[in-house]
Amino acid sequence: MHQPCRGDSPPPNCLHGCFSSSPFHGATTSEHPSDSTPTVTSATLRRDFAQTTVSTIFPDTQFADPNSLPSLHESFSDFIQAYPNYTDTYKIDRIRSDHYFHLGLSHYTCLDYIGIGLYSYSQLLNYDPSTYQISSSLSESPFFSVSPKIGNLKEKLLNDGGQETEFEYSMKRRIMGFLKISEEDYSMVYTANRTSAFRLVAESYPFNSKRKLLTVYDYESEAVNEINRVSEKRGAKVAVAEFSWPRLKICSSKLRKMVTAGKNGSKKKKKGIFVFPLHSRVTGSRYPYLWMSVAQENGWHVMIDACGLGPKDMDSFGLSIYNPDFMVCSFYKVFGENPSGFGCLFVKKTTIPILESSTGSGMVNLVPTNNPISLHALEINRTEDTESEETYSFSSSVEYKGLDHVDSLGLVATGNRSRCLINWLVSALYKLKHSTTSRLVKIYGPKVNFNRGPAVAFNLFNQKGEKIEPFIVQKLADCSNISLGKGFLKNIMFEEEYEGVKEKRRNRDADEQGISVLTAALGFLANFEDVYKLWIFVARFLDSEFVDKESGRCGVHVYEHKNREIV
């Protein structure tokens, strides 16, 4: 299994945060423009963003020689010309330098997972800031460990923390506060991961009353496979949304028919669960929130998959407007160093009564370590109220610096930064061509787009137009200290003219059709050097001998991954 990268890139330089602030082309220069300032509409801003990207990022230029690419500083100058508001995010560079300095010391660029880190790297260890010498006295299980347990989900939710430890309670309150989820409206349980959360819902939801499961994913997911498997086993009719080729947009007419089919549901009898991911964590496609309202109006329980969201995307979600019945998200410990963590399953309290009692695995306990560097003692204070009933208040010196840093930045800064970086990367990748008619890179899903998410799915092709196996590219990227992800796009509706694009692979006892792809995902700490480094690596495939030469150096065997058949 390909592991998320960890480890120690050259120290950050003046590329990162050493510029004065200035607004984006076409946007107003003030939060409160005067009456004489023309109002910039949302549609205009999005159109101007795309036009500026195309006209500024290497305009009328293509690169066929990997040695002809502009330098890091030249490219960054063009980048700032296209996105001057990027310099408003200098605070992120300072946080990265001060609290995640391992990213500056390492030779790795982490582009293979998205999520939310609880802690900063500086909390992990003692170090000398003047020399950036890293201490070797790290705990084997920093901050906390995860202990699996067998339990009844409905009972746990109804008990709502009655058996939580002080540490688990403190963690829950911080997470719910970070996500702006009301403890009055939702109960939460810790799960081993996203897949476990999906399975717990499938095992407890009353599917045996012939209810349905409808999911909206353009890629293969272990968690989605699991909820499909368990739900179908328990009597559910499983359906999936389809996506149109080549933009991978939701086939709206088909999905609307599936959502609205049959009689409208009621509070007493629902159609089933509508599982909605908000956006694709593989292609970066964002989906209209309107689908949640349509589903609710037509009698569905709605389950939100928030695992692929950016760290502050929940601020723009409008939880109080949509009030999903279930929501799943995940957290890890430290970005770029320790990707272990846990999942969180939130269930609306008014939905809990319809669940069935089911005892199984998937929930976990969080056990704090005794490492004095990472955690301090939690204190519990017992008081008595006027009716002589004991109440408890918790105070903790535990600091969740990862969450604190994101909170200090806010949605605008983190969103603008990832938007600039991912769109530059998409535009720059398209400038790599073997010839005027032969592209090196194929991107799946949205291209340059103001609203796209911080992930991109792509493949590389040689001069003959033959696809280079994602497995090979991923291994060679590892050898160049870049971590990329892999995915499999599916549920795609191909028109006849695109039939030759499909791949077929064996999955269990059935053939699946889709496309295997590479993925690059940007966390909130990503900077321009990270995306430039990936661009430089991809450009090396313009050399027809690169794969053979680099495969030999890295010990990668091209014949190692030939288990798929092209349709």
Automatic annotation (TrEMBL):
Top-level taxon of origin: Eukaryota
SUPFAM superfamilies recorded: PLP-dependent transferases
Annotated PANTHER family: MOLYBDOPTERIN COFACTOR SULFURASE MOSC, PYRIDOXAL PHOSPHATE (PLP)-DEPENDENT TRANSFERASES SUPERFAMILY PROTEIN
Domain Aminotransferase class V: 175-462
Protein name in UniProt: Molybdenum cofactor sulfurase-like
Matching InterPro entries: Aminotrans_V_dom, PyrdxlP-dep_Trfase, PyrdxlP-dep_Trfase_major
